[in-house]
Amino acid sequence: xxxxxxxxxxxxxxxxxxxxxxxxxxxxxxxxxxxxxxxxxxxxxxxxxxxxxxxxxxxxxxxxxxxxxxxxxxxxxxxxxxxxxxxxxxxxxxxxxxxxxxxxxxxxxxxxxxxxxxxxxxxxxxxxxxxxxxxxxxxxxxxxxxxxxxxxxxxxxxxxxxxxxxxxxxxxxxxxxxxxxxxxxxxxxxxxxxxxxxxxxxxxxxxxxxxxxxxxxxxxxxxxxxxxxxxxxxxxxxxxxxxxxxxxxxxxxxxxxxxxxxxxxxxxxxxxxxxxxxxxxxxxxxxxxxxxxxxxxxxxxxxxxxxxxxxxxxxxxxxxxxxxxxxxxxxxxxxxxxxxxxxxxxxxxxxxxxxxx
Length: 357
Ligand code: NAD
Ligand code: IPM
Ligand code: MN
Known about the structure:
Distance between the termini: 24 Å
Structural class: alpha/beta
Number of domains: 2
Radius of gyration: 20 Å
Number of strands: 12
Largest sheet: 10 strands, mixed
Helix content: 40-55%
Strand content: 15-25%
Bound molecules: nicotinamide-adenine-dinucleotide, 3-isopropylmalic acid, manganese (II) ion
């Protein structure tokens, strides 16, 4: 099977200056999978790519020890002094309100204006339908994730904010991608209920549909979409959705290609408001149920790293990492989530063995 490549480049990094990449491994299995991405960074450097790595300790341990989530000065340095962020995962049962996750991950997404979250689901794991090729474009900064709400006894409110600039940026990226790939585009919405917010989505979608007559595009009620997806995932190409629906749809689509351990994501700001305009992270979370056991699958993290390489214009390196992942899987390398026995480190090593020197 020719799996091709995942994702696309948003421009070439200036090779005269090193690309500064901040690493935030985070919590649970985040550091375990990040440990397998680090050698890939060393590998691109060995091929002549100039990179500078900034390792950051932010996450649950740091918060519990110091009370700090993501200090403002550090955020400013990331925003203005780095080019990219490679992120593991956040979430820890000892912090049930998820305050640190909000103040680290959601803040980075929102305050860096990383509107577009790209979550490709490509089959690389043997046994999964090789004809599935779904790419979810999730708006990454708005909807209920604006975190404005109130709780009082017997009543709770979560506000969902949708703004035209963000909706337009997300949909424009989705239309462009569908046009490039010759895929259809489905907008997932619930405008039959969420008349205001999803009504705005439909209006912008209709406007872009007339500007992109080459893309077969239509809206679907998200509930009906989920049923249709499970019945025939091969019928779908690009799916665009708001932050909340996109979160749910991307996890469902992960199940078509091997589950939470294997799906990557890349978030970026197409309007490039700051120097740091891209963040790569796997779709999965910190998986407290398997953290510390060496069971985590590093594939989602490594494919996210490949997406970042492609975004930086390092196409050969991105393709090589994706091919190494695919070849290792096809040769039978599997962690426990895929029914195998390899540890995280052994899986990472099996993949790295396929990288060209
Ligand atoms: P999760 O993705 O962490 O785990 C869901 C299931 O998938 C678990 O059974 C887990 O063991 C499995 N899994 C996930 N990643 C895996 C991997 N790489 N290899 C093998 N198995 C893997 O989702 P959850 O359990 O709902 O959330 C746990 C914590 O992570 C929560 O605090 C949540 O808020 C957080 N979270 C963070 C992110 C992120 O940082 N981007 C994403 C999702 C969830
Ligand atoms: C994800 C996660 C996050 C989200 C959580 C950890 C806030 O589920 O990255 O998909 O809901 O966006
Ligand atoms: Mn999620």
